[in-house]
Amino acid sequence: MIVIINRLNRDDYTDLLDQMYRQRYDIFIKRFGWDLPNDGVLEIDEYDTDDAVYILSVDDEMNIKASMRLCPTMKPHLMADKFAHLCFKGVPTGPSIMEVTRFYSLDHYKRDDLPQHFTGELRAAMLEYALSEGLTQLTCIANLTIIPNMLKTGYDLTPLGLPILKKNECIMAYAINVTHASYIEVCENNDIDGPLLPVSKPGERTAA
Amino acid sequence: MMMTSKKLEYFENASSFIAECKTISSSAELVATFHKHISELGFCHFTCTSFCSDSDTPHNAVRLAEYPSEWIEHYIQQSYKKHDRILSVARNRIIPFSWDDPVVMHGMTDLQEQIFQEARETGIIHGVTVPVYADGFIPATINIVGPNRDVDPDVQHALHLMSIYLYDTAVKLRKQEPETLTDRVIELTDRERECLQWVAEGKSESVIAELMNISQSTVHFHVENTKRKYGVATRVQAVVRAFLDNQLLL
Q1: Cβ–Cβ of B161/A161 closer than 8 Å?
Q2: Share of chain B above pLDDT 70, in %
Q3: Which key words tag this protein in UniProt (chain A) (predicted)?
Q4: What is the value of ipTM here, to two decimals?
Q5: How sure is the predictor about B183, in pLDDT bands with cuts at 50, 70 and 90?
Q6: Are residues B160 and B204 in the same domain?
Q7: Which of the four CATH numbers 1.10.630.10, 3.40.630.30, 3.40.50.2300, 3.40.50.170 does domain A2-189 have?
Q8: How many CB pairs under 8 A join A and B?
Q9: Nearest to B137 among A144, A152, A168 (CB)
Q10: What are B22-34's pLDDT values in tens digits?
Q11: Domain final position from B144, B179, B214
Q12: Range(s) of the domain holding residue B39
């Protein structure tokens, strides 16, 4: 199941947000060793503001299985503030462009061959949300090792610059082009057979 | 940070290849397009190969090449695959590496050094290898060969990026093969392809007969058919042609 958290409903989801911040600490700081602000339990940075939108894939017990954050590019965001050098022709910004950060999936850490249900759900939900909000691009910085998976799943990606080598990892900035065709392809490739977003309450999803 | 014009040029080249990938409709077109773009970066040959076990050739495995055919022929005849230094290094790497990197050059066996020397004599001198991994895909290596030892790191990054799209496009074209390749001039039967696959593994006709549980004369018949279809004189030439035609995995 997909849950969207934004400025209008975040007070209803404080438990889920807390769970997400804990998971981010475990994954990005403890597992990946990223140098991020934290209090030893939660990973929360300067972009976790009221402007941020979170898309979560949760199981029936409301355990988060996959998660991501969207930030408006008209305001300070990670790519513009810290990774602008990865964008050879400037950092894409605008009201129809949001930045994806902190994408993680607990599916990845399974050691069996079960389908990555929650990852697939989140991949499709991200495009569904973007289409519903009239977004044209989602920008992102990622390790190049995930790009083949992104392409395979059906995303239409435009690199924003050449990769660079950083601490023995190749990272790159790219834009995910938001199109109905790629949304259909992502759904087909992830066995998604219908809309995933919750039915919105008036004004709920449009305030970011 | 100042953007160098060279860096931007390499990026434009990679971006152009990526854009062209969206409209490519055949493996041959993909080979020609990739070759054109790596030529602009100073490289002359490449292979794009799925890691496969010797006798297992899954449908989504990929084999593309723009490589000196005399080297492919020699490589097959000598059964060099199992000794290939580049392949063994690539299996344990996730980021690209130069063939002049210490991880390649140190610890080579005498035979591996000999293979390198023989490759140099056919113009395969320096190279960059890009390993590509994706969930549900067979891992692959893209080898890109050129005359220059010292490759600009930004060129290597451009090759990395282009190689990811090369492989993705190759796999997607492979899935469409039944539709797009109906006009293929040379069509091998499954039996002919299987026989030729074993020939490529260096097996004799008597051994192939045992492996396929058919008579030696039937094996001979199938192999001769492939030679006839390709219009070549030797079994190895038939293997090379089938390899270049993406019908065979080595």
Answers
A1: no
A2: 88
A3: Autoinducer synthesis, Quorum sensing, S-adenosyl-L-methionine, Transferase
A4: 0.89
A5: very low
A6: no
A7: 3.40.630.30
A8: 62
A9: A152
A10: 999 999 999 999 9
A11: B179
A12: 7-179
The average pLDDT across B228-240 equals 79
Do B127 and B39 share a structural domain? yes
B173 phi/psi in degrees, rounded to 5: -65, -35
Residues 6+ apart with CB under 8 A from B56: none
Query: Strand pairing of A164-166 and A157-159?
Result: unpaired
pLDDT of residue A207: 40
Rounded Cα distance between B85 and A188, Å, is 39
Say if residue B178's pLDDT is above 60: no
H or E stretch covering A129: helix A117-132
- Give the mean model confidence (pLDDT) for residues B186-200: 83
Residues of A with CB under 8 A from a CB of B: 85, 88, 116, 144-145, 147-149, 151-152, 158-159, 161-165, 168-170, 172
Residue in this structure with the two tokens 């199941």, named with its chain if needed: A1
Q: Is the pLDDT of residue B87 over 70?
A: yes
Residue A103 confidence (pLDDT): 95
Q: For residue B132, which residues of chain A lie inside 8 Å, CB to CB?
A: 148
Residue B24 lies in a domain: yes
Is B141 strand, coil or helix? strand
Contact B157 A145 (CB under 8 A): no
The count of domains in chain B is 2
* B41 and B99 housed in the same domain: yes
Residue with tokens 């990946």: A32
Query: What confidence category does residue A175 fall into, taking pLDDT thresholds of 50, 70 and 90?
Result: very high
Query: Residues for chain B: how many in total?
Result: 250
